[in-house]
UniProtKB/TrEMBL annotation:
It comes from Pseudanabaena cinerea FACHB-1277. Residues 1-17 form the signal peptide. CDD domains: PBP2_BztA (cd13692). InterPro entries: Bact_solute-bind_prot3 (IPR051455), SBP_3_CS (IPR018313), Solute-binding_3/MltF_N (IPR001638). Residues 44-273 form the Solute-binding protein family 3/N-terminal domain. This is Amino acid ABC transporter substrate-binding protein. Keywords: Signal, Transport. Belongs to the bacterial solute-binding protein 3 family. It comes from the Bacteria. One of its GO terms (biological process) is amino acid transport.
């Protein structure tokens, strides 16, 4: 009888445990399961950025933020609130950025972050569409006689810790059986300052970052970015895993900027396109259909984004391209029909 009672208790415990609700992944990681509702109720977006990389996210002495990553945040705010300034920016270094997103401290991470499998799974992040296709490079002084990866043997090389660049450098040097000394810092400014003060003979980072930061060196003409690419670096915003509604919103905000360029819609010709007879354009801008409403936001969310921020070309040009100080060619960041990788799924 005692054995039967014990067996019955075990069975009851099994049934009770089986009936316990299984927590969603986002609940396990402490991230709200309805971030869209939370952000709308709050009345502003909290966006994690670097704040230290001109062209992507940079805050000047007056406290004004600018850059491609910043404009992605503003585009989300424009979609939600018809106000691109309804954003609170949070500066995060490479080491702390993922924790801030996982804990719900920020709603979205828009911080020149490389999309990798490990970050997309083990780190509990959900990556959005790529906003900048990049590759890792190396910058050296012109009088260093360093021209190729083999010339980095036995050199001190600066890199930012907690980044894919640190790992990629190790992989490339190991592949060539090349000894070197990594000189790493958590802060991007400290990394480039160390290079400027000749603490290291070379510095590695995303090629775009090297080109941009080279212009800020005391003697930019004495430095060059080598003609080599060490890795693929698809830079993309990310949100916490397990919240499909919020991920959908951020994803389609990015796609809006790309699709607007594809359709030839800009901040300057938006008004005339709102009265277009073209069915695709009318659906895209929310004049017809219910794409926005079906996602839980205003039906004209795409028009709001374009009105305030422009299409992808406008965002790129003012921050990194022809209208910026950097004049970076678009290269892989051209539209698909112009030989690039930028492509948005259909809005239907």
């Amino acid at each position: 009888m005692a054995a039967f009672t014990a067996l019955l208790c075990v069975a009851c415990l099994f049934v009770l445990s089986a009936c316990e609700p299984i927590p969603e992944p986002n609940q396990i990681r402490g991230v709200s399961g309805d971030r869209l509702k939370t952000v709308i109720s709050r009345g502003k977006l909290v966006c994690g950025v670097s704040g230290e990389l001109p062209g992507f996210s940079f805050v000047n002495k007056e406290g004004k933020y600018s850059g491609l990553d910043v404009d992605i945040c503003r585009a989300i705010a424009a979609a939600l609130f018809d106000d691109p300034n309804a954003v609170q920016f949070r500066n995060l270094n490479a080491k702390e950025r993922f924790t801030a997103l996982q804990s719900g401290e920020v709603d979205v991470l828009s911080r020149n972050t490389t999309w990798t499998l490990g970050r997309d799974t083990a780190s509990g992040l959900a990556f959005m569409p790529v906003v900048f296709y990049d590759g890792q490079g190396v910058m050296v002084r012109k009088d260093s006689n360093i021209k190729a990866i083999a010339d980095l043997k036995d050199k001190d090389i600066c890199a930012q810790t907690g980044t894919t660049t640190e790992q990629n450098l190790a992989d490339q040097m190991r592949k060539g059986n090349l000894a070197y000394k990594p000189v790493v810092y958590e802060d991007v400014n400290s990394t480039f300052n160390a290079y400027q003060s000749q603490r290291c003979q070379a510095i590695t980072a995303d090629r775009s970052a090297l080109v941009v930061r080279r212009t800020r060196l005391a003697d930019p003409e004495n430095h060059e970015v080598l003609d080599l690419v060490l890795s693929k670096e698809p830079l993309a915003p990310a949100v916490g895993d397990g919240d499909a509604r919020w991920a959908d919103l951020v994803r389609w905000v990015v796609f809006t900027t790309i699709n607007a360029e594809d359709l030839g819609i800009t901040s300057k010709n938006l008004t005339e396109n709102l009265t277009s007879a073209n069915a695709e354009i009318r659906r895209f801008l929310g004049v017809d259909g219910s794409l926005g409403k079906d996602m839980g936001v205003s039906n004209d969310f795409t028009a709001r984004i374009i009105k305030h921020m422009g299409n992808y070309a406008e965002i790129y040009d003012r921050n990194l391209g022809k209208d910026s100080d950097f004049k970076l060619p678009r290269g892989q960041n051209e539209l698909w029909k112009n030989g690039g990788l930028m492509y948005a799924p259909p809005f239907r």
